[in-house]
Amino acid sequence: MSKKFAMRGVFLAYDHGLEHGPTDFTDVNVSPSYIIDIAEKAEVDALILLKGAARHYYEKKVGIPLILKLNGKTALYGGEPFSTQNTSVDEAVKLGASAVGYTVYFGSKYEKYMIREFGRIEEQAHSMGLPVVMWSYPRGTSIKDDEAPEIVAYAARAAFELGADIVKLKYPNDDSKLNWVVKSADKTKVFLAGGKKLDDKNIEEHVKKAIDAGFSGIAVGRNIWQSDDPVERIRKLKETIRY
Q1: Nearest to residue 207, comparing CAs of 238, 162, 232?
Q2: pTM score, two decimals?
């Protein structure tokens, strides 16, 4: 039986294949079955997939709640970031999702389209009882430093104002402002993005500071399934989050 979707903890992300292509993968982790095996053994709180991986590999008997990502883009186009919906909320329900996710690139010249699309998704998902997760990533030529604390706080507030239940954010380059990021998000739960490759010590320090400031968890991918012992790494993160 699948456990109930939690608004706190460790989410294991595997939505990289569209965004990055296969460059992040090895012969071992190129298959979603490897990731799902990690998720089950480590008892993560949610698994993040796109519809292709979910359709072929995810089943409710896995026991891990599914967050289905509804939009995405490739790295092949080098212009302003613009990620549009490729999967419906109805399809997410058919695939067994417990929540849906969507990226908004605030600051892109295309942000108005993503904001409008997110609004439709948020209303439909909530009408069906599904929580909504926003990847809130300020990017584009107008954003000079997407890790500046004032930009991260803006990203947090924008997610709250648009109705997201959970917002996934980058770690700011001045972590003295972490509390302000959380306050800016108000009722929206804040999760740390796993982001670039970090060693065990650095990622645990980031998570500890974030949790102490009021973050609810971490949504992490490469820092887990590219490691030598993914299950143990998740265990340490769960201990850091203290739940």
Answers
A1: 238
A2: 0.95
**What phi and psi values does residue 15 have, to the nearest 5 degrees?**
-110, 25
Active site residue 137: yes
Model confidence over 99-121: pLDDT tens digits? 999 999 999 999 999 999 999 99
Catalytic residue among 14, 102, 154, 168: 168
Q: Nearest CA to 166 among 19, 2, 1, 11?
A: 11
Q: Which domains does the chain have, with CATH numbers?
A: 9-241 (3.20.20.70)
Between the alpha carbon of residue 221 and those of residues 16, 40, 159, 194, 198, the distances in Å are: 8, 15, 21, 6, 11
Listed residue (242, 174, 169, 233) closest to 212, CA to CA: 242
Residue 42, C-beta contacts closer than 8 angstroms, at least 6 positions apart = 10, 12, 230, 231, 234, 235, 238
168 is catalytic: yes
- What lies within 8 Å, CB to CB, of 92 at 6+ separation is 51, 68, 70, 100, 125, 130
Per-residue pLDDT reduced to its tens digit, 28-56: 999 999 999 999 999 999 999 999 999 99
Q: Which of 137, 154, 170, 171 is catalytic?
A: 137
